[in-house]
Amino acid sequence: MNHPQEPTARPIKILITKIGLDGHDRGSRVVAAHLRDAGMEVVYTPPWQEINAVVKLALEEDVDVIGLSCLATDHLLVPKLMQALRDQGLAHIKVVVGGIVPDEDEALLLDAGVSRVFHPGSSLDDITQTITDLAGPAAVPDEDR
Amino acid sequence: MARKHAAAIENSATDAHAEWRRNYERQLPNDKAITNRSGITIKPLYEPQDWSDASYMSDLGYPGQPPMTRGIYATMHRGRTWSQRQLIGLGTPQDYNQRLQRLIAAGTNAISLIPCNSVYRGFDIDEVDPLLVGTCGTTVNTIEDMDVCFRDIDIGRISTAMNDPLPFTLLALLLGVAKRRGIPWDRITGTSNQSDYISHFVANHMFFRLALPASRRVLVDHIAFCNERVPNWNPLSVVGQHMQQAGASPAQAMAFTLSTAIQYAEDCIDRGMDPEFFLPRFTFFFDISISFFEEIAKFRAGRRLWQKLVRQRFGVEDPKAWRFKFHAQTSGVDLTRQQPLNNIARVTAQAMAGIFGGLQSLHTDAYDEVLSTPAEAAAQIAVSTQNILRDEAHLTDVIDPLAGSYYLETLTNQMEDKIESLISRIDAAGGMYKAVEQGMVQTLIGESAREFANRVETGEQIVVGVNAYRIDEDGSTRQPLERPEPRRIQEQIDRLRLFKSERDRRQVQSALDQLAAAANDTNVNIFGAVVDAAGAGATHGEIVACLRREMGSGEPLIAI
Amino acid sequence: MSTAVDDAAAELVERLLGGQRAALARAITHVESGAAIARRILQAVQPGAGTARVIGFTGAPGVGKSSLINAVIREFRSRSKTVAVAAVDPSSPISGGAILGDRLRMGEHGTDDGVFIRSISSRGHLGGISATTAQVVDLMDAAGWNVVIIETVGAGQSEVEITQIADVSVVVCAPGLGDDVQAIKAGILEIADVLVVNKADQPMADETRKQLVAMLGLRRAERRNVPVLTTVATTGEGVDRLVSVVEQQCQRYPTPKRGQRPHKRLQTLIAQAAARQLQERLATSNEAMIHDLCTRVSRGELSIDSAARTLLDAVLK
User: How distant is the alpha carbon of residue C100 from its chain centre?
Assistant: First the structure.
């Protein structure tokens, strides 16, 4: 039924963003560029996004994964984001966090539904692989299968 | 006879070199090429052919004299070492005041004030999620807050590094407190540490508040106002640190910083200001990475270039303006979460590079910075590191002690060439402001950041505990988290609301109207209006919001 | 005969026409993927499409295009119009990856339900960026958005194609272009329905405006009336005028009604589909014949044009 010229899968689509008040974005830029080079479509935003704006953006862009960069204490807001995603029926979107997250707070994020926390020193290949695995089942939307 | 002897020595030197080369290649057949972070190839050995004493006067000279390579003062660290400035933050103005009292009791007279991230973003604490308030710095929004920060402290006798991006509300609040206490403004000393809006815009968007054109005007107004009314205040610190933290190589960071300084100087000159007058008050702020020799060379080359730029481009003949005064901070990017106590060793090496580079002021990072906001115990070790290097290791006995090293002098020259060629590129793009507006600088920094990340990824750059020498850790070396108590933050938010309700509303509104009018009238000094508004009881957030509304908030220009 | 795909498409289209944002987002994903379901979705939404005003914005990086679009969105919102944006980004030809939509995400409209922003990557689609874009515009249109803005970067072939989709094409410049004006004039002046000199608070703004007017004066008569406006996106100055002029230009087309859409965009869509199908059929046509044609062309017995005509005749037979 598929036309020979038509791709049936699509690239993984990820939103890389920052919530809260911090603006340092070296890490998120490096990761975004690496994921692009790995063939993903990366929606990249400037820092300081509001939680509701991230949810709206994720919905409108229909992303598979959200990657949050948190270097100050902005990770404390992540549970609120997770709740907002669930409220909007976006529980299928996987969320990963990278940056400076104290050990004491990691459980807080995982309990809130975050799939993985990347600490400083994480390898780019590990990040890429993890995101690929997480996005795997969702990369081809349900209606196609 | 003597000539024959000399010839024999020369011959033997050539022979000896050839023999060394043979042995070297035989014993190290697979020698890998080494390039530093700035892209300069590093040879295994440096000799008089690379650099010789014949260039002593042109390349080095004497401390406090052109070309300033050896330091900006005749006495350098032998006379006065450096200001030990530690960033202290967290919590409420009361918390800040208590820490400050302890520091001052311990003999400190140079302090710094680092505000909460909400302040950096231009908001009052009642405008953001309370979860974040006070977790990264002190919550200062009002003249009352500033008064509490400096309660029982003579603000006419301390020097404050004010981490205060434009429109410089914190300095405005401090000047308001001084006025209340009857302290003349010429006794207020310190530096507007975060005045370099270009670095904020380019590097991390951290403190970026107003649109670029608005920022450009506010900074020049600030410099003009301070030069006239707060004459012992340094209104400008040009910041390479942000750019290097964001991924610029040491050579790029130095070049972009110098280009930024050129831009600001030209903007001031366009406003009719005299460089003889304002340039001596320019100061700089750099990152010190762990690339030891490269950093030392970066600072020495930068010092030489600044002297040259000030004289050649701006024709300034006051030697005070040739002085490349800089504060430096050890690089947080080099620190690792793995085996965090190793960071103490890293900070030590970084600090040594800064000291040998001839800095005037130093901040050493706490080892736990990569884990969370530094704990007090870790910050204490960072201070001790400086004391140990100065008082135990005797690093400061001799001025510019590494001068004359074939390697370091060659590297200093090479870094200078690299930096100069980058400055030419910025010049060709129409100056730093234009280059940033076009995204050129962001792109270069982004490429550099990726290149370094790839080096670590491939193992070409070893990072102990990250891509080599890994061990299993139990986390027992980690300090417990320090966070302000939510109750105290809530009290602070309540105090702000109380302050807002009790102040003279009409007076505040009229000051904000004046500020808005100043924003739309280039004949009025905006910073003067900011100072008046702060004194009249307007809050930090209200002042920034007013200027954003009148002048535009702009948008980040991110290049990936 | 109803299949699972038909059912899924019908359900999605129903939700899309009902104004559900998630449904629109997912439908766009299907269209971008070129999945089988996409064709059914596109067919099903057609009767609902045709009422949106479609505006194309183009201009080189650094002219402040995103600030301007943000200001334009603000203006449309104040006129009680809902706005959907399709931000077109080129994808890397090497990895296929892309950095998308980093230009419009500055908070202001981030939480406004009257605004929908979607990035579109070219994904190496046959037919270029515009093939996907035209389809996405159809979906946004059918989902009930009053205004659809297409944002493209730079000035190239895709921009010219975008004009076939947009009702009005706005070209944004910055002051002090100097020689750059020479560089942009060729293609861009031909496609612009409205020219905007943004950052008009900078020196040279008026000079640039005059330069553009002068250049238009040298063009064909119908080009001479292209308005050249000035704006300061950061303060909003001149934006209301821009929006009024754009709305005026839209009046060139009859007020659209559901089911009676103007044919301009449809024509583009059909032509693109035709080109795509033709190219596919050419690629899969008689190998022996192609071999024979190649041989004759290489011997100099046949011109390339004649060979092409022969091949077309055979394929279309």
Answer: 16
* Domain range A13-139, CATH architecture: 3-Layer(aba) Sandwich (3.40)
Q: Does an H or E element contain C264, and which?
A: helix C263-283
| C243: amino acid identity, one letter | V
Burial status of residue B150 (CB atoms within 10 A of its CB: 0-12, 13-18, 19 or more): buried
Asked if the structure places residue B369 within a domain, the reply is: yes
CATH code for position B347: 3.20.20.240
Contacts of A30 in chain B (CB under 8 A): 247, 449-450, 453
Token pair 């140079």 is at which residue? B110
Q: CA of B19: how far to CAs of B13, B25, B29, B41, B43, in Å?
A: 10, 10, 15, 23, 17
Give domain limits for chain A. 13-139
Residues 6+ apart with CB under 8 A from B177: B143, B146, B147, B150, B155
Structure tokens given for C172: 């944004």
Please answer yes or no on whether C99 and B552 come within 8 Å at the CB atom.
no
Single-letter amino acid, residue A48: W
Is B517 part of any domain?
A: no
Q: Nearest to residue B204, comparing CAs of A99, A47, C88, C34? A: A47
CB atoms within 10 A of CB B178: 20
Please count the other Cβ atoms lying within 10 Å of the Cβ belonging to residue C254: 8
Q: Quote the number of domains for chain B.
A: 1
State the Cα–Cα distance between residues C61 and C58, nearest whole angstrom. Answer: 9
Give the tens place of pLDDT for each residue, C25-79: 999 999 888 778 988 999 999 888 888 999 999 887 778 888 899 899 999 999 9
Q: In what order do the strands lie in the sheet with C228-230?
A: C115-121, C83-89, C147-153, C53-59, C168-173, C194-197, C228-230
| In a domain? residue B395 | yes
DSSP conformation class of C47: G
**Within a domain: residue B356?**
yes
Residue B385 contacts by C-beta under 8 Å, 6 or more apart in sequence?
B344, B347, B348, B351, B364
Q: Do C22 and A40 touch (CB under 8 A)?
A: no
**Which segments of B95-205 are extended strands (E)?**
110-113, 159-162, 189-192
Which chains border C (3 or more CB–CB pairs < 8 Å)? Answer: A, B
Q: Tokens for B226?
A: 């301070």
Q: H-helix or E-strand containing A68?
A: strand A65-70
Q: Are B422 and B256 in contact (CB under 8 A)?
A: yes
Whether B67 has its CB under 8 Å from any CB of chain A: the answer is no
What letter would DSSP give residue C154?
B
Copy the structure tokens of residue B20: 């060394």
Contact B259, B284 (CB under 8 A): no
Query: How do the domains of chain C map onto residue ranges?
Result: 1-48, 49-260, 272-316
**Cβ-Cβ contacts under 8 Å, A35 against chain C:** 97
Q: What is the pTM of this model?
A: 0.86
List the single residue in B with minimal CA-CA distance to C236: B552
Touching subunits of A (3+ CB pairs, under 8 Å) are B, C
Between CA A101 and CA B376, with CA B287 as vertex, the angle to 5 degrees is 50
Cα(B406)–Cα(B325) distance, integer angstroms: 26
Contact status of C66 with chain B (Cβ, < 8 Å)? yes
B254 contacts B301 by C-beta, under 8 angstroms: yes
- Look up the ipTM and state it: 0.86
- What fold does the segment set C49-260 form as a domain? Rossmann fold (3.40.50)
Q: Which domain holds residue B355?
A: 69-458
Q: Do A120 and B120 touch (CB under 8 A)?
A: no
Give the distance from CA C155 to its chain's centroid: 12
Render pLDDT for C24-38 as a digit per residue (tens, 0 to 9). 999 999 988 877 898
Average pLDDT over residues C288-294: 88
* pLDDT score of A47: 86
Distance CA B112, CA C200 (A): 41
Give the closest of C62, C202, C235 to B552, CB-based: C235
